[in-house]
Amino acid sequence: MQRQKQLTWVLIIALLLVTNVSCRRQPPEVPPEPELGDNGQAAKEEETEKQFFCPLDGMPVTDPAFIERRPLAVMIGNIPGVAEVSGVDKACLVFEMLTEGGITRLMAIFLHQDAAVVGSVRSARHYFLDKVLEFNAAYCHCGYSPQAKQDISKLKVISLNEFYLPQVYWRVRTKKEPHNVYTSTDRLFAELERRGLLEAPSPVKFNFYDDNSSPVGATATKVTLNFSPSYVVDYVWDEAAAGYARIVNGKPQQDEESKQPLVAKNVLLQSVEGTRVLDAEGRLDMKLVGQGNGRIFQQKVTYELNWSKRSRSEPTSWTDKNGQGVRLVPGQTWIEILPREAQVNWE
Questions:
Q1: Among 174, 148, 179, residue whose Cα is nearest residue 161
Q2: Do 208 and 58 contact (CB within 8 A), yes or no?
Q3: d(Cα 95, Cα 74) in Å, to the nearest integer?
Q4: How far from the centroid of its chain's Cα atoms is residue 202's Cα?
Q5: What is the distance between the alpha carbons of residues 85 and 118, in angstroms, rounded to a whole number?
Q6: Structural domain count of the chain
Q7: Are 223 and 346 in contact (CB under 8 A)?
Q8: What is the pLDDT of residues 61-97, one digit of tens each?
Q9: Is residue 57, in this structure, part of any structural domain at all?
Q10: Is residue 124 part of a domain?
């Protein structure tokens, strides 16, 4: 009897031990270490930060949101000694075309770089609209010619006109009118944001050379553009700046605000037909829709181009003589639009 009791107690104790062990929480399984590749780096290192570049000048941007903005196309006066340019050195592209009186006016395209002072802002001309529309840009100007006023309304161009936006522009009282109207890219972009028109990426996207490629052509370290007897522009290769320094009527041109010389990485010439005087004020017309010849200067070489544009809003297509698309050197490009009969020399 005593032996049976001992056996019973042994069975009870054994049962309690088994139950206690089975109720204990088991430790979680430790996941295996990630396997490393042949180069000894984990897969997560593949998630490197992406670099963004401006589609208009090929330069890196600090914030990708900048290249999602609608470009600004600002009309700028250009009379050395009377109307010096400000903020132009921050533009991605600069267009130059004749206006009345044998002088030119500039239209600077801004996207990823901001300029605290831009000007002097001048009035619109209708043929500049052909370039504004290409970039789906906001046209920034102070007044307009009768033809431009009509086309801005007809074509539904986004117009940031100083006449109606005193909060966006200011006048410098120490400068002579009408060369005293200025603005900033911050104010212009803020006005677009207020209207809900800020986010509209440019449909124009240029191709650019990389570090392993460069243009091929005839040697050209200087080009002279004879817009009129009273207005001549030279571009002279500057080795230190790795671009073409801009010289107007024999004097180097610099940005009045930054005091930096104006240097083009690319000088793109567009020869156009149909330049004619429209009215007694001497206002001009230019035929920028159609096709024609051109030439490019970059990295001390030059070669011929063809251009074509099927409508006022369609981007201009640029190809070389073999039909290949043109590539640009990263940096600021000046697009010079001249009458076909204008004299152009290079060396």
A1: 148
A2: yes
A3: 10
A4: 9
A5: 8
A6: 1
A7: yes
A8: 989 999 999 999 999 999 888 889 999 999 999 999 9
A9: no
A10: yes
Q: What is the DSSP letter of 56?
A: T
- Alpha-helical runs (H) found in the chain: 2-23, 129-134, 146-154, 185-194
For residue 193, give the CATH number of its domain: 3.50.90.10
What are the beta bridge partners of residue 328?
Answer: 208
Contact assessment for residue 111 and residue 129, using Cβ atoms and an 8 Å cutoff: no
- 58 in any annotated domain: no
The answer to whether the CB of 267 falls within 8 A of the CB of 336 is yes
Cis preceding-peptide flag for 178 (omega within 30 of 0): yes
Q: How far apart are CA 299 and CA 297, in angstroms?
A: 7
For residues 337 and 95, the answer to whether their CB atoms sit within 8 Å is yes
- Grouping H, G, I as helix, E, B as strand and the rest as coil, residue 147 is helix
- Residue-level pLDDT at 79: 87
Please tell me the pTM assigned to this model: 0.85
Length of the chain: 347
Looking at residue 49, its pLDDT comes to 67
- The answer to whether the beta carbons of residues 127 and 120 sit under 8 Å apart is no
133, 129, 138: which is closest to 97 by C-alpha?
Answer: 129
Distance, C-alpha 150 to centroid of its chain: 27
